[in-house]
Amino acid sequence: MPPPGERSCVLDASALLAMLQGEPGGEAVQELLKTAVISSVNWSEVAQKALDWQAEVEGLRQDLGALGLEVLPFTAAVAETTARLRAVTRQAGLSLGDRACLAVAAVLGLPAITTDRIWLDLGLPIEIRAVR
Q1: Are 69 and 33 in contact (CB under 8 A)?
Q2: Which of 10, 26, 73, 130 would suit a FRET pair with 109, their CA atoms being 20 to 30 Å apart?
Q3: How far is 12 from 132, CA to CA, in rounded Å?
Q4: pLDDT tens-digit map of 20-54
């Protein structure tokens, strides 16, 4: 697993789910896994879906971790950044999970990877890449 300084991007739950479900854009996400991170908030979204599929969540996390994906704790600094993003993303209807991903990307200075193209129109000082 690469050191934290060698991380390349922050995955949104939508991007990781696209990969797990074999949806368009999933191939691009798979290529990023070895240097990607995901917020524990977004991991919770993925875990919810995995439980809906009757998958073993801990095993899934371990498998993805073996491929390089790191689940980051939701820190107070990230929580405060998430809260600040509410005012500028409210009109676009972004959820707490969406804002958590963007906040981690902002705090770490990394691009956010998502399938939600509406993020591209937010005008945020955060690099955003839509995989589809």
Answers
A1: yes
A2: 26
A3: 13
A4: 999 999 999 999 999 999 999 999 999 999 999 99
* C-alpha to C-alpha distance for 61 and 1, rounded to whole angstroms: 14
- DSSP 3-state of 39: strand
Q: Which residues contact 100 (CB under 8 A, 6 or more apart)?
A: 39, 41, 42, 74, 78, 82
- For 61: left if phi > 0, alpha if psi spans -120 to 50, otherwise beta; the answer is alpha
Give the per-residue pLDDT at 2: 61
**What pTM does this model have?**
0.94
Distances (CA, A) of 2 to 8, 42, 49, 119: 10, 21, 27, 28
- 76, two tokens: 């107070």
